[in-house]
Amino acid sequence: PARLATPPPKTSDGDPEQVHLIGGYPDEVTVVFMTHLPRNSTVELRRSSEVNSTVVFSGIGHVYSFMQNPSVWNYYHDDLYPFPDVKIKNCGPNEYTNPDCIYTSGVIHTVKLTGLQANTRYN
Question: Which one, of 123, 114, 122, lies nearest residue 29 by Cα?
């Protein structure tokens, strides 16, 4: 199978975090990562043996939001057990205009890398 190198360490809020690799067909992998700031959903890839040959793959980025409603949570299976944070404790359908009750993710990027070769190291 193709092997990808370790990503560089985080240096700013626009850099990728939570990088996940998802296998697909033998010649592809999907990269999913999150950034706090908007940026292009791209991944640069090159074979370790070819320093001057980089391929750029483009994907998509999404942000999602939802209203937090702790009154319906099963507290026995929740990190916030036994009580949710005070800011969201009273959140529910009547608090839809309260910004403390709305969770918004960072930008979640999905990029599919195709045409990979087995037993090849990539950077």
Answer: 114
Characterise 18 by phi-psi region: left (phi > 0), alpha (psi -120 to 50), beta (else): left
- Dihedral sign, Cα of residue 40, residue 13, residue 19, residue 3: positive
- Residues 72 and 60: their CA atoms lie apart, in Å, by 32
Task: Give the model confidence (pLDDT) of 42-71 as tens digits.
Answer: 999 998 888 788 999 999 999 998 888 766
pLDDT tens profile 3-50: 544 545 555 667 889 999 999 899 999 999 999 888 899 999 998 888
Q: How far is CA 92 from CA 36, 72, 101, in A?
A: 26, 9, 8
- 């209203």: which residue's tokens? 67
User: What sign does the dihedral 109-59-51-21 (CA atoms) show?
Assistant: positive
What tokens appear for 113 in the block? 């890398």
